[in-house]
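Sharing a chain and its predicted structure for anyone who wants a worked example. Both blocks are below, sequence first, tokens second.
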Amino acid sequence: MREGLFIKKGKDRWEQIEQDRDVPADETASNFTRLINDLGYAKTFYPTSKTTAYLNALASRIYLSIYQNRRERSNRLLQFVKTDLPLIMYRHRLIMLFSLCVFAIFFSIGFFSSAHDPAFIREVMGDEYINMTERNIEEGNPFNVYSSMSSFYMWIEIMRNNITVSIMYFFKGLFLGIPSILSLGKESIRIGAFEQMFYARGLGQQAIVTVLLHGILELTAIIITCGAGVVMGTSFLFPKTGTRLQAFRNGAKDGVKIILALVPVFIVAAFIEGYITRHYKMPLYMSLPILLLTGGFITWYFVIFPFVVSGRQLQTARSQHA
């Protein structure tokens, strides 16, 4: 088509688009689509023409008007917390369940191995730590390790250490997730051996309460962290309809989002360990609200809420296609 004929056919419509600034959204979208088609044609057959430059400028103006006036989400962080992360947890719920089972199995191994072989705990925890703990027990302060430094310094140091370790556990998952699971297994054995050491001395109940004050949050975060590593490391094995590279990218994105969401959990867990766990001799009625609050949060947000959000999404999708 000659350029003159092309201009003649589209001139009136282009001028109308340029003059009509306030039109309904549907009409704006339709005009933009047709204008893009005209611009594509002009770039193909008249690349250096003034007509092409005119259409490009007009399309750019409409594009900016659409996206500048688009209603943005008021709180992207709230959207992530309320919808995005729960859906990620639901999508990978079987991997998270597997990670939890690994923790339970290796915790049991650590606990019962220490019960049958007293030397086992020294191999796992180290002589220095065991000797210190035994002295504390003899002095009547079995969990004095939690008050060995100032509350603030302990909070910051534990927070830094836990976040650093969690990132390491996550990136170990690059190798099919196996190193992440092995790290979780080793940590679980240590915790099991630690608990058995106090149980053997008649301090089992106090050890459970003391550790769980911060451990409900901290241990859950570690379990989920290693699960996120498995999500990333195994994502390319089951690409579904996309390529393996796309599947790996999606798995890595999901894993990173999980890790970022766990940072506040580690911060709160470290705060409890630094400021509250040191008062392990406080009566149970003071510890119980903390245990119920942290346990309730973990159960609701990471176990129940993902099913709730997924159910809502499914119901919405069905209603739209009804």
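Comments welcome. The chain has a mean pLDDT of 87.
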